[in-house]
Amino acid sequence: MHNKPTKLILTLYFPVLVSYVLINSSIISYFVAWFGSLFIFYTSILSPAAIINQDSPIHKQIMRPIFLTQLIFAGFMCTTSIFYFMDHLGYRYLTEVNYGAQFKESEQTALIASCQRMSLLAHAALVTGMLLIQNNNIRIKSNRTFESDDFLIWLSIIVFGIGSLAQRFPGLNQIAIPLTIVGISCAAVLFVKGVNTKNIRYLSIGASIFIINFLHASLSGYKEPIIINIIVIACVFFPYYKKFILYLALPVTYVLLYFLPTYNNTVRQSWSGEVSAEEAQNQAFENLNLKNEEQIEDTNWGFMTKRLSEIEMFTQFVDYVPDHHPYYGWEIVENSLEGLIPRALWSGKPNMETVSMERVYDAGVANKMSAVSAKTRPIVDAYLSWGIPGVFFFMLLYGMLAQHLSDKAEEIFGGYELGCVIMFNSIFQGLWRGNNFEFMFNNIFWGYIIMWVLFILLRTLKVLKPVFD
């Protein structure tokens, strides 16, 4: 397939153009920008004009960037803002109305609409980058030596074990986390293979590693590890149980949005050390009953408006820069490049968490006295650096990079399953949502090195063999 993506790419910017034409009507402009992301999802994935790799049906390639990375990144960045915006307009759960605030425009309305337009521009640029780089004829350079999937068992156990061990040493986190996730992804693939082939060995090993990790995530007090585990298992099962996963999607999403914030808030009691994580978990399950319905709804609405969407934080930065602080230019990028230098080679290396939080404190997004970590996201750092042009050009590069890394992983690891599903979506899982520049540059740089080290290891162990033209 040699489709030129020019027409498709130009189509993506139609809602962007309309949203900016309507800039003086903030509410309408916001909704055009919000629906614009749904338009891009449809146009780039489901429409007849979509340019999709023809080597497999769509449901068998959903973990490629144009599907999974786009849906998670843009879904989080663009569509979750609807809860905050409706709350701003006086609605709660779309039913309870504060008539004093209902559909009245203010400076904040204009700021929210401005951020939504930039988010839509970023979404269009992200997909543009993917389409420009997407290789529809990936030339596989390696093949598996063994017909059996037994190598996934050893890869899962060894990599998960090394990753778990490395997590005990703070300095090795950059290596530990990607390796652990590779092990979990191997386990998820083994799990689904065990179910499909009724292979008890694959099923027991895959399910054991995956469930142990899921239980560990449920005791962490963080929502993201739980959600990521559910996304991974849903994606690996989807090609084989498409209708079943689609039927489950809505109720599972509802349960996560309704119960998870309250559950996690209770589990976090263990952070103070007064109770164990297990005791906090038991208390969390006790809290999730109908008697606490009002508390659950309050907690969840707060989560959906303030935490699920980060558009409120975005508006604070847009209000701060450039009116109260000039654009940062290359400052954030330079800090991020410094962060790539190992501390062993530079004893005076600044703490990247401290460096990245400075602009958060300066903009008044968080207070230095609070324990909260309100790190920026890629689109925010791109805006802070160069304004709207920065958002476009950085997100264009972001899409190109994500697509290149996925294609390269498939090329060297011998195809979609090991290359994209296991390696790309594990090592570069941070690309799903993005992070601030300091952490993201670090994750991508070291992730790239880890990917090649694993490739060399598998070639050395003769798990992979070269393919000669």
UniProtKB/TrEMBL annotation:
Q: Spell out where the chain crosses the membrane.
A: 12-32, 66-86, 151-169, 175-195, 202-219, 246-263, 383-401, 413-432, 444-461
What keywords tag this UniProt record?
Membrane, Transmembrane, Transmembrane helix
Query: Carries keyword Repeat?
Result: no
List, alphabetically, the NCBIfam families matched.
XrtY_assoc_Wzy
Task: Report the protein name in the record.
Answer: Exosortase Y-associated Wzy-like protein
The species this protein belongs to is Pedobacter vanadiisoli
